[in-house]
Amino acid sequence: MNKKLYLLLIISGLHILLIVKIIYNMASGAEAQTPAAGEENVLEWAAKDKRRFLHAVYRVGDLDRTIKFYTECLGMQLLRKRDIPEEKYSNAFLGFGPEESHFAVELTYNYGVDKYDIGTGFGHFAIASEDVYKLVENIRAKGGNITREPGPVKGGETVIAFVKDPDGYIFELIQRGPTPEPLCQVMLRVGDLDRAIKFYEKACGMKLLRKKDVPDYKYTIAMLGYDDEDKTTVLELTYNYGVTEYTKGNAYAQVAISTEDVYKSAAVVDLVTKELGGKITRQPGPIPGINTKITSFLDPDGWKVVLVDNADFLKELEKK
Ligand SMILES: N[C@@H](CCC(=O)N[C@@H](CS)C(=O)NCC(=O)O)C(=O)O
Fold first, then answer.
1. What distance in angstroms lies between residue 15's CA and the mean position of ligand 1's atoms?
2. Ligand 1 neighbour 144 (Cβ under 6 A)
């Protein structure tokens, strides 16, 4: 009898263990799903975050020469300048309106460096103009280098032209109606367009505004951004059929985009890089000395993006 009771006790004990294990498994299963739900949340957050293109950063060999070309030929305004002698460089910011609401180019001059390699991956910046023919004549009269005469784009109707700035950066001039943001595109070439589109949608919360395949000229372009392409600056990604690698040189550096939270942004980017490639190159946090919070990363093609805390950026502008 005692033996039977003993056996019964063992069996019920085993049952209890089994039930505990089942409950534990269910709980850990639920736990394993939590990050997925979390992933969903951060990705949704990234799409709702208050973002806008702030500036494109690149290096030039002579600040005054570029400022003269951009103001006299391209119609930009010089917005601010700063010299950082401790680090042996100076910056100039130019654009078509105040940086609080407009995109800008941030030129970097490194003391003593007068030449850079632009590489084959960087495409162009673009300027929208109501009369590209007239703009080109003005630029030519001032000695500018027109590399493509105005006329309809190959395979389309929009009137475009190309000019080269003193360092060799290309500006596409695009004919369109009045716009609040004439500095309207940063074009970069990528080796896998769908991967790049997914990356910018997920990691940067951008919308795919337009995609156009031009088989006659063997390329596809995608416009990505935060608002209509005729109202704000967009990122134009170009895929040339069969070309997966480009050189980056050392001239063009990055685009900066605003965010309300660099820490959350970095968590999103980190997740997306695990799926699509690319990597965080600077963990989120304040820049020593300036205190503006940033995080930066490379996309799957190696193009650099910096996310900048919006409130810190506006404070920085107040100090200028
Ligand atoms: N192979 C070109 C593909 C992109 C392309 O052709 N873009 C159009 C503008 S969207 C262009 O530059 N067209 C030249 C023209 O119309 O002369 C590249 O990599 O730049």
1. 71
2. no
Dist. CA 204–CA 207, nearest whole Å:
9
Q: Which residues of 212-241 are buried (b: 16+ CB within 10 A; e: fewer)?
A: eeeeeeebbbbbbbbeebbebbbbbbbbee
DSSP 8-state assignment for residue 206 = -
Ligand 1 pocket member 124 (CB < 6 A): no
Ligand 1 atom closest to the CA of 219, numbered from 1: 3
Listed in sequence order, the DSSP H helices in the chain are 2-48, 63-72, 132-141, 193-204, 262-276, 310-319
Question: What are the tens digits of pLDDT across the range 68-81?
Answer: 999 999 999 999 99
Per-residue pLDDT tens over the stretch 231-275: 999 999 999 999 999 999 999 999 999 999 999 999 999 999 999
Pocket lining: 153 vs ligand 1, CB cutoff 6 Å: yes
For 125-164, b/e burial (b = at least 16 CB within 10 A) is bbbbbeebeebbeebeeeebeeebebeebeeeeebbbbbb
Q: How far is the CA of 266 from the centre of ligand 1 (A)?
A: 33
Active site residues: 172
Cα(8) to centroid of ligand 1, in Å?
81
Is residue 108 lining ligand 1, measured as CB closer than 6 Å? no
Atom of ligand 1 at shortest range from CA of 124: 20
Two structure tokens written together for 51 = 């973002």
Per-residue pLDDT of 140-182, as tens digits, reads: 999 999 999 999 999 899 999 999 999 999 999 999 999 999 9
CA geometry: angle at 44 spanning 181 and 50, to 5°?
A: 30
**pLDDT for the residue numbered 43:** 82
Percent of residues in the chain assigned helix, strand, coil, to nearest 5: 35, 35, 30
- Cβ atoms of 253 and 296 closer than 8 Å: no
Domains of the chain, first to last: 53-319 (3.10.180.10)
Sequence ranges of the binding site: 106, 124, 172
